[in-house]
Amino acid sequence: MACISIRAWGGLWQICLVVLLSAHVTALDCSNFRDLQKVLNRNSMQLLGQVAGAFPEECLEVRPTFRFPDKVLRSKAPHNAWMATYEILQQLFSLFKMTLPKTAWDTHSVERLLNAVHLQIKRLETCPPTNGLYPSSRNKATKLKKYFRKIDDFLREKNYSKCAWEVVRIEAKTWFYYLDKLENRL
């Protein structure tokens, strides 16, 4: 009889949760949208913590050359919160998809994180804002795209080093905090 470790069961549980939620994501109406997004967001944040260990001491000297555009968080309008949430998740997905061949991170954990973020994106797509997007929403999307472009530039300048990726991973933890704030406005 095969023996499965506790750690493996934990990973299987998370995968089952993502599969179960993704199977039902389109069947759900949008009335519980915010609550489900919060659960998915917390799950993604936990998965991000599992991709690598503690921040390496040798990376303490590496300073980021980018700063999150806080203005995108200031609007109280649901359509702006939806757009900012969607853009952050899309950019996060693209960025971390790129990490797989370039880091020493746990590939399995990165894949689980990507699946969870993809599920959040799909959920957002099934429940867009009822009143559409406004020019101010597009302006905020542009600011976020510039910010993520700076992150790409930072990684390139640092030759996609381990320390550069670790700085980005720490920055990504703040994205989930911002997503939590934005999801309160959806």
Q: Which parts are unreliable, with pLDDT below 50 for 5 consecutive residues or more?
A: 1-6
Order of helices and strands: HHHHHH
Shape: globular
**Percent range for helical residues?**
55-70%
CATH fold node name: Growth Hormone, Chain: A
CATH architecture: Up-down Bundle
The N- and C-terminal alpha carbons lie at a distance of 48 Å
Largest sheet: none
Estimated radius of gyration: 17 Å
Q: Total strand count, please?
A: 0
- Would you state the CATH class? Mainly Alpha
- What value does the average pLDDT take? 81
Portion in strands: under 5%
Number of domains: 1
What is the number of helical segments per DSSP (H or I, 4+ residues)? 6
Secondary structure class reads: mainly alpha
Map the helices and strands:
Elements: H1 6-24, H2 33-50, H3 78-99, H4 107-126, H5 135-157, H6 162-183
Helix pairs in contact: 1-4, 2-4, 2-6, 3-4, 3-5, 3-6
